[in-house]
Amino acid sequence: MANVSVAAEWQLLYNRYYRKPEIYQMKWKHIDLSRNKVACAPFGGPIAVIRDDSKIVQLYGESALRKLRIFSSSGVLLSETVWKHPGGRLIGMSWTDDQTLVCIVRDGTVFRYNIHGELLEPNSPFSLGPEVFQQTVKECVFWGNGVVCVTMAGQLFCVPDFKNLTRTVKLADPGIEAVEDEEDEGFAGMRCVAVIEPQYTMSGNVEVLIGVGDGLISVDEDGLQPLAVGLVPGPLQKMVVSPNGKFLAMFTHDGRIVVANMDFSQIFIDYACESVLPPEQLVWCALDTVLAYWDDMLLMVGPNDDPIRYFYDEPIVLIPECDGVRILSNTCMEFLHRVPDSTVSIFKIGSTSPAALLYDALDHFDRRSAKADENLRLIRGSLPEAVEACVDGAGHEYNVSRQRTLLRAASYGQAFCSNFERNRIQEMCKTLRVLNFVRDHEIGIPLSIQQYKLLTASVLIGRLINSHHHLLALRISEYLGMNQEVVIMHWACSKITASLTIPDATLLEILLDKLKLCKAISYAAVAAHADKSGRRKLAAMLVEHEPRSSKQVPLLLSIGEEDTALIKATESGDTDLVYLVVFHIWHKRPALEFFGTIQARPLARDLFVSYARCYEHEFLKDFFLSIGQLHEVAFLLWKESWELGKNPMASRGSPLHGPRIKLIEKAQSLFSETKEHNFESKAAEEHAKLLRMQHELEVTTKQAIFVDSSISDTIRTCIVLGYNQAASKVQKEFKVSEKRWYWLKVFALATIRNWEALEKFSKEKRPPIGYRPFVEACIDADEKSEALKYIPKLADPRERAEAYARIGMAKEAADAASQAKDGELLGRLKLTFAQNAAASSIFDTLRDRLSFQGVT
Amino acid sequence: MAQIPNLDNSPLNLKSIREQSQRELLNILKNIRGKKCLVIDPKLGGSLSLVIQTSLLKEHGVELWHLSAESIQTECTKVVYLVHARHSLMRIICSHISSDITKGLVREYYVYFVPRRTVSCEKVLEQEKVHHLVTIGEYPLYMVPLEEDVLSFELDLSAKECEVDGDTTSLWHIAKAIHKLEFSFGVIPHVRAKGKASVRVADILNRMQTEEAVNSSDMGLPEINTLILLDREVDMVTPMCSQLTYEGLLDEFLRINNGAVELEASIMGLQQEGKKIKVPLNSSDKLFKETRDLNFEVVVQVLRQKATSMKQDYTEMTTTYHAFGEIIMLLTCQRLGLVKTTKYEKYGANLVYYCRCFEYIEELIHKQEPLAKILRLLILFSVTNSGLPKKHFDYLRQRELLHSYGFEHLETLINLEKSGLLKKQESKSNWLTIKRALQLVIEDTDTANPNDISYVFSGYAPLSIRLVQHAVRSGWRPMEEILKLLPGPHSETKRSGFSSSPSSDTLQVASTTIDKDADGRRSLVLVVFIGGVTFAEISAIRYLSAQEGMAYDLIIGTTKMVNGHSLVETYMGNLV
Question: What is the predicted ipTM?
Answer without folding.
Answer: 0.89
